[in-house]
Amino acid sequence: MKNVVLFLIFSLLATITFGQQKMTPTQDPTAIGNAFFKALLDEDDKVLGTIISDDLDVIGFDGQSTDASLFIQNVAGGIFTVETGVVTDAVTRQYNNDAAVMTGIWQAKGSIDGQGFDSTVAFSVVSAKQAGVWKIVNVQFTPVSQ
User: Fold this and answer.
1) Which superkingdom (predicted)?
2) pLDDT in tens, 10-58
């Protein structure tokens, strides 16, 4: 029972933290990764457009690749929707001050092209500095057996 209460408190604190984040060009790669998942939850294509690179490649649950413009269109058009999403075990490793990899687990429920999903996936979000600003260049979701 304690674990359930702690999980609920952690989820509430994570939601509050996401809600207080503002987008600035000097954000670190962890903040950009967190903003990415919040933008998916909020279906906010405008924020996605500011934090992902033009050459973004997203590898989905099914191993299919999606480029930046199609990914943003899918979010904006309601093709890819997230009803709930909780990130856990997130760790960011930064390399040479201009590249970083954020990994963790994302438990999400939503739909892709009308097909519902309720999945736990391991994720990696690769960020790179482009013209001095952090941008997400690659995202990969890998289903985790439960």
Assistant:
1) Bacteria
2) 444 444 444 444 545 447 899 999 999 999 999 999 999 999 999 999 9
Each residue's pLDDT tens digit, 2-12: 444 334 444 44
DSSP string, 2-71: HHHHHHHHHHHHHHHHHHH----TT--HHHHHHHHHHHHHHT-HHHHHHHEEEEEEEE-TTS-EEEHHHH
What are the domain boundaries of the chain? 29-143
Q: Is 36 exposed, middle or buried (0-12, 13-18, 19+ CB in 10 A)?
A: buried
**Burial call 37-70: b when 16+ CB within 10 Å, e when fewer:** bbbbbebeeebbeebbbeebebbbeeeeebebee
CATH code for residues 29-143: 3.10.450.50
Query: Cα dihedral angle (72, 76, 77, 78), rounded to 10 degrees?
Result: 100
- Whole-model pTM: value is 0.80
